[in-house]
Amino acid sequence: MFDWFDSDVLLQQLLLGLSNGMIIALIALGYTMVYGIIELINFAHGDLFMLGSFLALTLVGAAMNCGLVDPALMGESSHWWLLGTLVVVCGIFCGGLNLCIDHFAYKPLRRASKLSQLVAAIGVSFIIVNLGLFWGGLPMEVLGGGGAAAAPKDFPHLVSDVNLLGEESFVVMTWNDVVIFVVTIPLMIGLTLFVKFTKLGMAMRATAQHATAARLMGVDVNKVIAATFAIGGFLGGAASVLYANYNSTVSFQMGFRAGMDAFTAAVLGGIGSLPGAMLGGLLIGLVRAMSDQYVGSEWTNVVVFSLLVLILIFRPTGLLGLKQREKV
Amino acid sequence: MSASNSLLLEIHELTAGYGSIEVLHGVSIQVHTGEIVSLIGGNGAGKSTSLSCISGIVPLRSGAVRFAGESLAGVAAHAIVKRGLVQVPEGRKIFPRMTVLENLRMGAYARTDRAAIESDLEEVYALFEILKGRSSQLGGTLSGGEQQMLAIGRALMSRPKLLMMDEPSMGIAPLLVAKIFEAVKSLRARGLTILLVEQNARAALKLADRGYVLETGRVVLSGTGAELLSDPRVQAAYLGE
Ligand SMILES: Nc1ncnc2c1ncn2[C@@H]1O[C@H](COP(=O)(O)OP(=O)(O)OP(=O)(O)O)[C@@H](O)[C@H]1O
Ligand SMILES: [Mg+2]
Question: Which of A27, A149, B21, B178 has a CA that sits 20 to 30 A from residue A262's CA?
Fold first, then answer.
């Protein structure tokens, strides 16, 4: 295999990497925001993302059953309204669920040791994975395949598969790629502006920088933490729809890998940093695509894990992270 | 001395602590409207704990804290700020990666009167002119003295009735300390009531209408600033005479 010199292959992998990278970045934001505020690695975040994609699949199935969309037209014509609705609904679902997770699992442990909180997060992760397994056993498959609870399920392309670069082009770019950028870029810009300029966004930054001082200035820190979970969850839910649509398959175990990628992205960018999570997500997406092509897809998880270990050893503050954590 | 005699803050037999350790063993302090009251004492006496407890950061175990006639027991820290009781914390605790302006705006977080916030901002800039030129500089890059001014300015932005300051002179060059104490005086002249915690006992007692001496979680002495300054026990223990 000497694809190294084939610029078409390289271009295709770049596009794939960027598209998946944007999705990873969206998930990574959920990790980094929560960590920035309560120094908790929310292990359940990737699994929450999985649950979002299950809801999306269920809703697609429901839309088909109700005759709102024609299964035969999947991938042929574009169902923008369905995709848009799913992004919003799954975003709200995951945001709300994340809010509940914080309230019932993490909030009671706010003053407990970091280890207890981490164990709670791992516990929540297990619970969600098993919820996913249960959900997968419900009759939810849409286009056949994946009848068994644990089996991966096909997810249809909700927008057209027509190659936007022309029928002859070797490199394929469809609306399924474009839609990722159309959704993620405004979300990221919106989040950045929100954090920079709104009162709640300012309170989030203040709480992340000095929680006690924020309380002394009149910030209800519990509310800010709840908002952080809700926003992070929303982004994860939106990402889950894009992911399912782009990669055409969902499974109850997919949260682990997505979570690992996103967590690595957050660490790579500098955990706690929003631009860092965005940059890290893109880089991890590219690394995965390049590794899939030039190293071998069976090695890609190894590559990503190794990268995580290397960052933690040589540059634990990440690319855009603070040189040194200010400690109180 | 005090312009008015109405009781603004009343702390009665306050006990508080951390975990199994009790740090305050029944502290009673009163602050009247318009007064500057100093709280002095050595390291670990419980001065900061007293302020944290009043601010709702450390829960009170027994006793009472009443502010403007209402009990603060069980009131959340953020709600206490809304009532007009704010603290300039020990070590300044400004938000390092927020600009000076953003730090000041955080001080006004509990407020909704936009126009008044803008005019208060100008007042803070007038009080501490250095801050104005640095409004877009990150808080963490300010010098210690500038950070202290920012911390005071930030607290003022909440438009408090009572300002509590925890060792504003700590780790700051004498020239700046004088400036900060000047500012404290001018704030009182404008009618602000101040509870000042200081290790720099001489400066604090000179400034204060009244003072309290705290030792290992108990008030051991109290009186007017002048009385305490001339008290032999205070002189021996805190004034190095
Ligand atoms: N977060 C905490 N956890 C446990 N113990 C604490 C904590 N904060 C303070 N203490 C203890 O409470 C006691 C009083 O501390 P406090 O900070 O109130 O003293 P202070 O009078 O402000 O001293 P200083 O002048 O050094 O600031 C000390 O013995 C201190 O060790
Ligand atoms: Mg102290």
Answer: A149
The DSSP code sequence of chain B is --S---EEEEEEEEEEEETTEEEEEEEEEEEETT-EEEEE--TTSSHHHHHHHHHTSS---EEEEEETTEE-TT--HHHHHHTTEEEE-TT----TTSBHHHHHHHHTTT---HHHHHHHHHHHHHHSHHHHHTTTSBGGGS-HHHHHHHHHHHHHTT--SEEEEE-TTTT--HHHHHHHHHHHHHHHHTT-EEEEEES-HHHHHHH-SEEEEEETTEEEEEEEHHHHHT-HHHHHHHS--
B174 within a domain of the structure (yes/no): yes
Query: Which structural domain range is residue B60 located in?
Result: 7-239
The CA B93 to ligand 2 mean position distance, Å, reads 13
Could you read off the pLDDT of B7-48 as tens digits, one per residue? 999 999 999 999 999 999 999 999 999 999 999 999 999 999
Phi (first) and psi of residue A55, to 5 degrees: -65, -45
Confidence (pLDDT) at B1: 45
CATH of residue B11's domain is: 3.40.50.300
Q: Where are the alpha helices (DSSP H) in A39-162?
A: 45-65, 80-101, 114-137
Pair of tokens at residue A21: 């990278």
B45 lies in a domain? yes
Residue A44: how many CA atoms within 13 Å on its side-chain side? 32
List of E strands, A122-210: 153-154
CA distance B76 to chain A (A): 8
**How many domains is chain B partitioned into structurally?**
1
Q: What is the pTM of this model?
A: 0.93
Q: Which residues does chain A have within 8 Å of residue B97's beta carbon, measured at their own beta carbons?
A: 205, 209, 322
- Domain assignment of residue A271, given as a range: 20-149+157-282
Q: What is the per-residue pLDDT across B134-154, written as a single tens digit (0 to 9) for each? A: 999 999 999 999 999 999 999
Residue B157 CB neighbours (<10 A): 24
Look at residue B231 and tell me if it is in a domain.
Answer: yes
Q: Determine the distance in angstroms separating the CA of A246 from the nearest CA of chain B, rounded to an integer.
A: 37
Residue A66, CB-side half-sphere exposure with 13 Å CA sphere:
7
The pLDDT of residue A140 is 62
Residue A257 lies in a domain: yes
Contact A202 B106 (CB under 8 A): yes
Q: Is residue B1 part of a domain?
A: no
Contacts of A215 in chain B (CB under 8 A): 56-57, 77-78
Is A188 among the domain residues? yes
Q: What is the pLDDT of residue A327?
A: 35
Distance CA(B221)–CA(B224), nearest Å, equals 10
Report if residue A291 sits inside a domain: no
Tokens of A134: 């249960």
Total of domains in chain A: 1
CATH number for A61: 1.10.3470
ipTM of this complex prediction, to 2 decimal places: 0.94
A5: confidence class by pLDDT, cuts 50, 70, 90: low
Mean pLDDT confidence for A39-58: 95
